[in-house]
Amino acid sequence: MEKRKIRREQISLSSACREVMLGGMIWHPDGPARAVLVVVHGMQEHIGRYQPMAEALNRAGFLVCAYNQLGHGNSLVRGTRGILPGREGARWVVADCRRFVAAIRREHPELPCFLMGHSFGSFVVRQALTDPKTSQGLKGCILSGTAGADWGMRLVALPATRILAALLGEDHQSCRFDRLANTLFARKFPGESSPHRWVSSLPEEVARFDSDPQMQFVLSLGGYRTVLEVLEQVSRSDWAKKIDPALPFLLLSGEADPVGGEGSGVRQVAERLSRAGCRDLTLRLEPGFRHELLHEPCRKQVILLIRQWMEQRL
Fold first, then answer.
1. Which helix (H) or strand (E) holds 185?
2. Most exposed among 46, 69, 93, 112, judged by the fewest C-beta atoms under 10 Å?
3. 63-86, pLDDT tens digit by residue?
């Protein structure tokens, strides 16, 4: 049987940061689409890493769209990967998510729309959904590798990042700071050498992460400030109360993911949504797996779960 060809379409969209055009991609199914999934990637990665998932969903009739967030992929601030302005960064990355979702929905008004965010992308998605214009009419939201409220982040990491950015400059890319940030997660897995071993339990996937030329960069202090400020916004006790309770949520995480507090932070997000009245909430923690379920041995089952979850809500 001849393998179906997947048609990829490169697109671009102006960022809320006016000097930048966001580079994006649309993966088209072979035939009429039944729904669209918009994907927002995580910190220090790019949309190309979602191609296997996109192609699998294409075969089930889903149109998949994604864009490179500011400072990532080909969405570069001042031409340098990793640079992300901290003072306006949190506002801009959330506005970019809202802009992209709105643009895709204008382009495909006939298609039911789902929204997915991974890691930092999940923080951006969560904050974007506090605007009814973004959440209204969505068929569902998928949060992968998200995090709960962390007092260490609020009381230490965020203030320290703001101070360092003020002293050294928002664009400063500190290898020492980046190493420290990774060490906080990597220390959960002693005996493995890569600083990114918290990403996956598969050595070959960690090696692929380490060698990807589009991911070999240090996030600027302004970038770290942006990530932490968006996380701080969605960690506030009233965040879930701003979300449409009719919007279905699927929360996915590895039970050994340090970003999600080995499941505790993800449960906290689910509990806050539940207390706020969310009427359709699914939580899935995969035992033994780490941060990126799409790069773990369970990835086929996870993609199948995502597909079936969306199909049940069409």
1. helix 175-186
2. 112
3. 999 999 999 999 998 899 999 887
Contacts of 14 (CB under 8 A, 6+ apart): 20, 21, 22, 99
- Of the pLDDT bands very low, low, confident and very high (cuts 50, 70, 90), residue 155 is confident
E strand or H helix at 135: helix 132-135
% residues pLDDT > 70 (the chain): 98
CA 184, distance to chain mean position in Å, is 20
User: d(Cα 142, Cα 64) in Å, to the nearest integer?
Assistant: 13
Q: Are strands 281-286 and 249-254 parallel, antiparallel or unpaired?
A: parallel
pTM above 0.85, yes or no: yes
pLDDT band at residue 5 under the 50/70/90 scheme: low
* Intra-chain end-to-end CA distance of the chain, in Å: 29
Dist CA 99 CA 111 (whole Å): 17
Task: Label the pairing between strands 249-254 and 140-144.
Answer: parallel
Report the mean per-residue pLDDT for the chain: 95
Q: What counts of helices (H) and strands (E) characterise the chain? A: 11, 8
| Rounded Cα–Cα distance for residues 225 and 235 (Å) | 15
Q: How does 69-88 read in b/e, with b if 16+ C-beta sit within 10 Å?
A: bbbbbbbbbeeebbbbbbeb
Q: What's the rounded Cα separation, in Å, for the pair 263 and 84?
A: 29
3-class secondary structure for 264-298? HHHHHHHHHHHHCCCCCEEEEEECCCCCCHHHCCC
